[in-house]
Inverse folding.
């Protein structure tokens, strides 16, 4: 190995950095969803592929379970390892006993401790604002359901653009292994991505009916 190669390391984005320092692998994103929303989960995975290709994230969902494994143990371990937990929120998601009793319990504890960040993605109209999720800033903007857009692709585009912006903001705060106060970080980044008129109104501007 040449001296120049010795001085080059890999940062979180998979690009070269000077100094020969070895960085952490990309943050693991755990996707929590109801199986009835399988096709929407697949759409989320496709949207993340651009970020995955650049080594900005590594994502996991329960369809990656190996045959014969202890699935409950594996899911728990993956949530404990995740730096970001994406929630695909729907009526079925909220009514799932396993999601609420296991996945959300672990994710919420890690979120509160600053070890992970929870990002809700609202798929459809449901009573999520009656749950503890109401305290989190959801995607798309203002929690407008992705599946109820006139042009659904725009909703997904808004989700992935906002999520990409969130990652950029968090990377600017340093190594994901050392993230602290991630909820404040999420709110700061999300607020910075809002149009100026929404920032002035603290995000409470009502959307125009039937618009995207």
């Amino acid at each position: 190995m040449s001296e120049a190669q010795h001085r080059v390391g890999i940062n979180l984005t998979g690009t070269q950095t000077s100094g020969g320092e070895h960085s952490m692998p990309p943050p693991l994103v755990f996707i929590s969803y109801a199986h009835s929303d399988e096709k929407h989960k697949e759409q989320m995975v496709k949207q993340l592929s651009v970020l995955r290709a650049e080594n900005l994230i590594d994502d996991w969902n329960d369809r990656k379970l190996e045959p014969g494994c202890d699935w409950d143990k594996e899911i728990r371990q993956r949530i404990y390892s995740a730096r970001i937990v994406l929630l695909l929120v729907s009526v079925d998601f909220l009514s799932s006993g396993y999601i609420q009793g296991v996945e959300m319990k672990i994710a919420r504890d890690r979120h509160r401790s600053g070890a992970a960040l929870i990002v809700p993605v609202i798929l459809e109209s449901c009573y999520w604002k009656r749950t503890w999720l109401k305290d989190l800033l959801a995607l798309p903007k203002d929690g407008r359901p992705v599946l109820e857009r006139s042009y659904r692709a725009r909703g997904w585009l808004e989700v992935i653009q906002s999520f990409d912006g969130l990652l950029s903001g968090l990377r600017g705060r340093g190594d994901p292994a050392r993230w602290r106060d991630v909820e404040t970080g999420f709110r700061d980044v999300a607020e910075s991505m809002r149009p100026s008129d929404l920032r002035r109104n603290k995000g409470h501007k009502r959307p125009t009916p039937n618009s995207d």
Observations:
- The beta strands are 8-10, 16-18, 28-32, 58-60, 84-89, 117-122.
- The longest strand covers residues 84-89.
- Helices lie at 3-6, 38-53, 71-81, 91-95, 97-113, 152-171, 182-192, 196-200.
